[in-house]
Each structure stands twice: as structure tokens, then as C-alpha cells.
Specification:
Elements: H1 2-19, E1 27-31, H2 38-46, E2 62-67, E3 76-81, H3 88-101, E4 110-116, H4 124-133, H5 137-140, E5 143-148, H6 158-173, E6 183-185, H7 196-206, H8 210-219, H9 224-245, E7 250-251, H10 256-273, H11 283-305, E8 316-317, H12 319-345, H13 352-355, H14 358-367
Parallel strand pairs: 1-3, 1-4, 4-5, 5-6
Antiparallel strand pairs: 2-3, 7-8
Helix pairs in contact: 1-10, 1-11, 3-4, 7-8, 8-10, 9-10, 9-12, 10-11, 10-12, 11-14, 12-14
């Protein structure tokens, strides 16, 4: 029975990964004038330095994609370089074109417009661009304003508050609707994240497509609570599905629909936490390691928690057992992933193989048994 269930898991894992390898990723456009700290914001939230930062004046104009498939990450980030404060019209024209038509076949899902607190004032460039861009209804609901370098502000956020008022008054004078326009204060010091988590939560909510939203949540590194919440939603959906699958008792060792639901759940949870961002091991290998342990864990767990299943009805599994098993498995995997991410943020290097060992999974499944 154990060998059959484990083999079914492995087969379903390979099938699921092959079917989902060419997914479309969400695209975040980071807009704003030169020197506002856009690249530093990217590096803070998404990590690993893929967006280069420099104090040197950019040599070229244009919009450029960072991350994405070329960086083995599940998100596209578009940044601009080389636009000066006297080029508002040119910048707006090119910015609007990218927002409407995307870049390199990547449609724009969310726009972060960055303004540096260090400048001590709202530049005419920013006001001119915001008035024009927010005047377009199709763009307005996808854009928020991000105040960067807020470590230059006072403890009471006096400069940010002044900036917010200036922008709101400027939009009002130009008859630009601003209902729902969100502002976020950020800085580049992870120890003082200010409203980084709020920015991430807003961005996730602004992405309508569930798969794209999950890829965004997976790609960001700083807000673990939004990852955990998304994982809980994934587990709940899988648990309900498992109960339906087991409504009519099915053989435990050969339950393809149940195995498929569990593999998708585990894969989605692994994607949300993106463990490969904290290790040199690829996301596929991480999944291989986890799946290889799950089969053993499930069989031993279910024999312990439901001892009669091996003899009653020839090892049949019903809806209650299927849902309990699926929930416990999902919660166990989510907790291990959360721990892994937490340690990664603290700079602690952990071995995926050690965390996802059979005993650890079974103990946590026991903890979360309904």
C-alpha cells in the first residue's frame, strides 16, 4: 500500500510540474523620476540584488524588465532609467504606452509610483505625470504612490504627510479623481520597514487573477503573514475538495483524484513560500525532496491515527479521513515553509532535506489533525 501511494504521488508531481512550467507571471511597474530609490525598493522586497543600484547617472533611457524567467523568479519587474526632471512629457508618453501595451509580452498588473522623501519637496515632474496618468480610469485603480527613503523623514512623518497633501490638492485642482488612491511610506532598511507589508498586501489585492496573485506573494520576501494567509486559503480549498472526493469510500492505496488534489496543494504552498530563494537548490529539487518524504509520512501517519483503515473495507478511505489527512498535510508543510522563510530573513542557512524529513512532517501532521 505504501509503495503504491508513494509512486502515485511521484507520478502526479511530475505531471503537475510539467503542465505548469510555462505559467504567465505578474508584472509590477516601478515608476518615478531618476534617483528615487526604485531599484533599492525592488531589492528590499524581492531580494538577491537582481535590480542593480548605482549612484552613477544612467546612460540610457527606457523601461527594462528585471527578474522573470531569466532570473528563475515568478514575477516580472519593470523599472525605468535615465529620465530627468525636465522630461515629464516624454516620460508620461512612454510610461502610458508601457502601461497600456505591456513590455515584451508582459501586461502590467500593478504600478508603484515612487517619490523620494529625501528631495524634501514634490517635483513638478511628479505632479505633471501623476495628473496625466491618474486621469486615465483604466490605470488609476492599479497605481499607488510609494514614498521612498522615509528614513530622511521626521518621526511623525511630517514630510510624507506634506507630500500627500500636496499631491491630493494638485489632483483636486485638476479635477482628477483620487478616491481609493493609496500612499505607502518605505525606506531601504529592513529593520524599519514602515509600510512595506501594507504595500505588499495592497498589491496582492490589486491583482485579480488568483494564480498571478500567488506568484506575486511568492516572489516578495518581506511579508510572511500574507504568504501564510494565502497558504491557509490553499489548504482550505484542498480540504473541501478532499472531502468531496472521499464522499464515496475509495481505496487508500490507489486514490488518483485525492493524490492529485494533495500534490497541487503542496506544490502551491511551496510556490507561495518559494524556498529556492533562500537556498542554492532549485524549486523543482525542493519539490522532489518534499514529495519523496510525503508519501512515507502519509502512510505512517494514517496507520497511526486511523488504525482500522488497514483492515476495514480493504483499506478504504472516506470523506472525513480524506479531508482530515489533507488539512493536516497542508498545515504541516506550511508551517515548515514558514519557519524556513523566517530563518532565511534572519540570515540563517538551513538545509531543506533536514527540515522536510519524514519524522518532522508526521509530528506536525499529528499536531494539526482535526
Amino acid at each position: 500500500m505504501a509503495d503504491t501511494y508513494e509512486q502515485n504521488l511521484q507520478n502526479e508531481w511530475e505531471k503537475y510540474r510539467n503542465e505548469n512550467k510555462d505559467k504567465i507571471y505578474p508584472t509590477i511597474l516601478i515608476a518615478g523620476c531618476t534617483g528615487t530609490g526604485k531599484s533599492s525598493l525592488i531589492n528590499l522586497i524581492f531580494g538577491d540584488g537582481s535590480a542593480m543600484t548605482s549612484d552613477v547617472k544612467p546612460e540610457t533611457q527606457g523601461f527594462h524588465i528585471y527578474y522573470g524567467k531569466n532570473y528563475n523568479r515568478k514575477i516580472n519587474l519593470i523599472d525605468s532609467a535615465g529620465y530627468e526632471t525636465n522630461q515629464a512629457n516624454t516620460y508620461y508618453t512612454e510610461l502610458a504606452n508601457v502601461i497600456r501595451h505591456g513590455l515584451e509580452d508582459s501586461p502590467i498588473h500593478v504600478i508603484w509610483y515612487c517619490i523620494s522623501i529625501a528631495n524634501k519637496r514634490i517635483e513638478p515632474f511628479d505632479m505633471e505625470v501623476l495628473i496625466k496618468i491618474l486621469g486615465e480610469e483604466s490605470i488609476r485603480n492599479r497605481l499607488c504612490i510609494v514614498f521612498t527613503k522615509c528614513d530622511y523623514d521626521t518621526d511623525n512623518s511630517d514630510i510624507a504627510n506634506e507630500f500627500r497633501t500636496t499631491i491630493q490638492e494638485g489632483l483636486f485642482r485638476n479635477n482628477v479623481a483620487m478616491r481609493g488612491l493609496s500612499f505607502f511610506e518605505t525606506c531601504n532598511n529592513i529593520k524599519f520597514p514602515l509600510q512595506i507589508n501594507d504595500l505588499i498586501a495592497w498589491s496582492a489585492a490589486a491583482i485579480d487573477d488568483a494564480d498571478l496573485r500567488r506568484f506575486f506573494i511568492a516572489a516578495q520576501k518581506t511579508n510572511l503573514d500574507v504568504k501564510k494567509k494565502e497558504a491557509e486559503d490553499i489548504i482550505q480549498i484542498a480540504t473541501v475538495a478532499a472531502a468531496g472526493i472521499g464522499a464515496i469510500p475509495i481505496p487508500f492505496s490507489d486514490a488518483p483524484l485525492l493524490v492529485a488534489a494533495q500534490v497541487k496543494m503542496v506544490s502551491d504552498i511551496l510556490d507561495i513560500y518559494e524556498l529556492s530563494a533562500y537556498t542554492s537548490i532549485s524549486s523543482k529539487l525542493v519539490g522532489d525532496i518534499v514529495i519523496s518524504q510525503i508519501g512515507k509520512s502519509i502512510v505512517r501517519y494514517i496507520m497511526k491515527m486511523f488504525p482500522g483503515i488497514g483492515t476495514i473495507l480493504g483499506a478504504m478511505i472516506n470523506g472525513a479521513v480524506a479531508s482530515s489527512l489533507t488539512y493536516a498535510l497542508g498545515a504541516a508543510i506550511s508551517e515548515i515553509c514558514y519557519r524556513f522563510n523566517s530563518n532565511g530573513l534572519d540570515g540563517v542557512v538551513l538545509d531543506v532535506r533536514t527540515l522536510f524529513d519524514e519524522k518532522s512532517i508526521r509530528l506536525l501532521m499529528d499536531k494539526y489533525k482535526k
